[in-house]
Amino acid sequence: MQTQVQRLLDLEAIRNLVHIYCRAADRHDHKLMRELYHEDALDDHGSFFKGLAMDFIDKLPEIQAPMEILHHNTSTHNIELDGDKAEGEVYVIAFHRVALEKRSIDLIVGGRYLDKYEKREGVWKFSHRAGLADWTHIQDPSSVDFSHPLVSGALVGQAGLDDPSYSFFQGFTAGKRSNV
């Protein structure tokens, strides 16, 4: 019974890791992103970056600078556990509104993350993450319109500490992984 309970706890910790990654990416919270990878972890984001994850995180301010909106959504998550190591395939749809010189464009990527996780000192983190694109859609120029009456007066998400979630919630602190 203990083994089954531990398996469920490990699976939930890995799912939580993936969800926190989405928040860290979308809020441009690089300090939080560092908490999600082991120091020797690898990251493969295609043409953006391939190498040590900590070096990738160092480049994130430059990579994310033109991204006015990032919105990662994960769905199917297949996980294979093997003791303190695991592998996972995570389906993702990621929306990017990217500022160009005179206009913004929308880029939607449907793909998967191919992950390797390790539990060290009782904490699951990424040991290797690779992004894979299954499809893309580009809208040029951007079709994002916050002036429409249906969203008038709504809170609008944004990168960084000015995102409304930081003032709304008490348990979400920038740069800090909670409930681990």
Strand content: 35-45%
Query: How many discrete domains?
Result: 1
Unreliable residue runs: none
Radius of gyration using CA atoms only: 17 Å
How many beta strands in the DSSP annotation?
Answer: 6
What is the CATH C-level name? Alpha Beta
Which structural class best describes the helix and strand composition?
alpha+beta
Largest sheet: 6 strands, mixed
Distance between the termini: 22 Å
Number of helices: 4
CATH architecture: Roll
Mean pLDDT: 93
Describe the global form. Answer: globular
Query: In CATH terms, what is the fold-level topology?
Result: Nuclear Transport Factor 2, Chain: A
- Helix coverage percent: 25-40%
Strand order of the largest sheet: 2-1-6-5-4-3
What's the helix-strand series?
Answer: HHEEHEEEEH
